[in-house]
Structures are given as structure tokens and as C-alpha cells.
Amino acid sequence: MGRHSCCLKQRLRKGLWSPEEDEKLFNYITRYGIGCWSSVPKLAGLQRCGKSCRLRWINYLRPDLKRGMFSQQEEDLILSLHQLLGNRWAQIAAQLPGRTDNEIKNFWNSYLKKKLMKQGIDPATHKPITREVEVTCENISSTGAEHSSLPPPLVINRPNEPAFLLTHPAIDFSLNAGIISTDKQTFDPSATLDFHQAAVTDHPVSYGTALGTSMRSSNCTGHGSIIGAESISSDNLASRMSYLFFNESSVTRDYQINNDLENTVNAAFSWGSGYCNKVNSSPYQFQQLGETKSEEASKPSPWSQQEQSVITSHNALDFGDYHLTSMPEDYDVFQDLYASCTLTSSVDRPLLLQKP
DNA sequence: AACTTGTCCAACCGCCTTTTC
DNA sequence: TGAAAAGGCGGTTGGACAAGT
């Protein structure tokens, strides 16, 4: 379809958003919620196309956005997820609450990619660049160690699925990232995700549990309060404006954002289906009008069930227990990724938002 | 102080998918 | 059922700023 049709109609503003535009859009969305983006500019009094408004909201004005530097845990997680998913920034962002795909993409391009290259790792494949490492499922166990300084890889095969290669041991996901597809051409990461999602429900110690544990164990003053204690790194004028604006608004405006689950009835924010759909793919629970948006939300929180034991046991992941050539049906890739990235302080408790 | 170069990141572009009529 | 509109995504760009000369 190409360019959004609304952009063609009139001469619309482009470029950086002014504080006034930000305020108009923010006021509109907080008052009326997200509906049809194409009608937002007109109704909000903006000379922008709907697409631009959507982007501005998602990438900048959304109240649950985290601001400031990426933590080490987030960095590790991005590396691991990128290894698994490639440049699927939206999917990666779905696993990092408060971060946008654009933000992660920029972070990757400006920092992580270079960091990997400095370490002699091909950012595209997450394999060492120094020597040719075309590892196949057949010869991987015999040749993998010869081609890199890494310890010999561990192969985990599932019937009818491509093999996963785990760099081992003690598997330091924070450096090596955890899982490498050995066959990029046939490996479909989404299949892994589907598999993972099933595991969230079925596996007693799912990725959702592990992550949720870390979220619960963090304090509750995070991005839910919009500002929290996080620093604003951007010098962008609009950034500063928004920062101040949100600060002020949290006190004086006619909406309220609550971090406490118990108080969500009073929250005046509404969230469009698009956003909720996106969030639904992650274990975080958002509700609208008391409506449960995910199955997990209707169940007793898995977070509370395994809490510290999960973190403790999985941080010291011992892959000696894993079979070398087969994986259990409910093996949860994300569980291990998350467990090995100590998330305990980096992820804030999710917002629970309701339409007014 | 002036200029050049490099870096970062917000925003745009264009394609694909999904939804609506 | 198909076309148009809208939403979503990843790649790319350009401007602001910092660092170097």
C-alpha cells in the first residue's frame, strides 16, 4: 500500500514534534483512548498524519515507557533474544516492558552490534567471526570447539524440529547468548515462540513465572509512575518537555495512573486494542474494564508460586541435567533465557490499566 | 574559534498484513 | 470476495550534538 493515505491529502507537518503537539496528542489519547489513528490528528487538532501520531505515542508519549539507559540485564536479554529472533524488534520489545522496538533497534545498531563485533562475534549470527564456523547438525559436536575459543557446544535436538545449539556450560547467556539456530533457513523463530507460549501455560516453571518473579521482586515505583526515579538521558527538547510535563501531570491532571493493582479502578487511561494485543503476547497482564486480557491473568498469579526459588535455582542453571540429544516436550527456551539473565531489579512491575 | 567527523536517535519511508466495508 | 483503509513492522535517514583537529 505504501504511504499512509492521510499523508497524501494535505501538507502535513513532519519532523520533530513540538511540546505543544505532544501535549495535544497526549491529552487526546489520555482522554479518549486509542481508537482510529487516522482520525486522531483531526480530533486532536494536529497537522500530522495518523501514522505519525501513532508512532509518537508508541515510541515516546506512552506513559509506561521506561526512560534512561538500558540495564545490564536488559542488554543481556536483548542479546539473547536477538540471537533467537533476529531483527524482530517488535517481538524483542514485547519481552522488555517499557522499551519500544525503535529504542531497542537503535540501541542494537548504535551499541550492541559494535560491542559484539569488538568481541569478534558476528552480530548477525552471534557466532565468532575469526574463523569460518559453518556448523551443521551433523558435525557440530565434533567441530564446534575447534572453531572458537568457546567450549564445545551442546546440541539439543527435538524430533521434527531444528536443533538448538547451546553454548555451554554454566551457560553464560549474558555473554554468549543462549540459543543459536543451526539452520537459519529452516528454523522459524515463531515456532519457538508458539512452543514457548504453550510452555507458559503448561510448564510449572515457565518463562512467565521466572520473569514475573523478577518483576514482583522489584519495587513498585517504576515506570508505572511515569517518572519514577529514572534519569532522563535525552537532551532532546521535547524529551525534557515531556519529562517535565509528565512530572507535572502526575499530580495535577485529570487522569491518574496507578501502579498498585488495587487502585486500577480509578485509572483513567485507556489502551487501544493494538497495544493490548501486543502486550498480550508477553506474560504481562493488562486489563481493560476489569476484563481479563489473558488467560494467565485469570489464574492465580504464577509469580507468587515459585518466586525466589525459581530465580535461585535457575540462576545456577545446571545443564548437566539436560539430555544431549533430546529435549523434553515442555522445554521452555525463554525460561532459561530469563532465568540466566538476572532480572531481579531491572524490570518494573507492570501497569494494570483500565478504561474509564 | 571554526571546521570536520562521528555518533545517536527520533521520525520517516515503504512494504506487508490485517481489518473493514 | 475483493478493494481500500488502517495498522504494524523493519530499514533508513537526517538533524542535533559531541569529540577531534
From TrEMBL:
Q: Name one GO cellular component term.
A: nucleus
Q: Which CDD domains match?
A: SANT
Domain Myb-like, by residue range, is: 9-61, 62-112
Q: What is its main location?
A: nucleus
Repeat as UniProt keyword: yes
Q: Name one GO molecular function term.
A: DNA binding
- What domain of life is recorded for the organism? Eukaryota
Q: Which residues form the HTH myb-type domain?
A: 9-61, 62-116
Q: Pfam families recorded for this chain?
A: Myb_DNA-binding
Q: Subcellular localization, per the record?
A: Nucleus
Q: Does the keyword Electron transport apply?
A: no
| Keywords, sorted A to Z | DNA-binding, Nucleus, Repeat, Transcription, Transcription regulation
| PANTHER family in alphabetical order | MYB DOMAIN PROTEIN 55 (PTHR47997), TRANSCRIPTION FACTOR MYB86-LIKE (PTHR47997:SF34)
Please state what the protein is called: Myb-related protein Hv33-like
Could you tell me which species this protein originates from? Punica granatum
Traced from the root, the source organism's taxonomic lineage reads: Eukaryota, Viridiplantae, Streptophyta, Embryophyta, Tracheophyta
